[in-house]
Amino acid sequence: MNLADLNNIVQESLSHRLQANANYQQEEITKLTNKSARLFPKDFAIDEELCNQLRSLCQLSQVSLKPSNKITSHRKFIGPLIVALKKMTYPLIKVHLDDSFKGIAAMNAWLVESHAKQALRIKELEKQLSKS
Questions:
Q1: What is the pLDDT of residues 10-25, one digit of tens each?
Q2: What are the tens digits of pLDDT across the range 69-86?
Q3: Distance of CA 16 to the CA centre of its chain
Q4: DSSP output for the chain
Q5: CA dihedral for 124, 129, 131, 132, sign (positive or negative)
Q6: Which of 38, 15, 13 is nearest to 25 (CA)?
Q7: Its pTM surpasses 0.85
């Protein structure tokens, strides 16, 4: 389904609603159907440096609480006991720290979004300055 099909479906639904229940005026339907469906402005562009920076920030912002691949010990005799204790205590620790890691992940996502908005705003202001 492309944008034109979606636009037609919305227009037909609004027209039927207008006929069945006069809550919408034809002027309102026209105004809604004429709205731009663009996600970004026509002159929107991200340079390669900013794109790579944002991509790196997104990758670095991913945090989760998970054990290392394999819990091992270099100690010959007491090592198996240490490994068993670590494996038994990990689920208990995870329960207490899971919410903290989710909060950190949410904060990191917000920081990446905030940085992206600021970077785009700076680019926009630089364009305005160059036009002046």
A1: 888 877 777 776 666 7
A2: 777 788 888 888 888 888
A3: 36
A4: --HHHHHHHHHHHHHHHHHH-TTS-HHHHHHHHTS---SS-TT----HHHHHHHHHHHHHH-------SS---S-SSSHHHHHHHHHHHHHHHHHHHHHHHHHHHHHHHHHHHHHHHHHHHHHHHHHHHHH-
A5: positive
A6: 15
A7: no
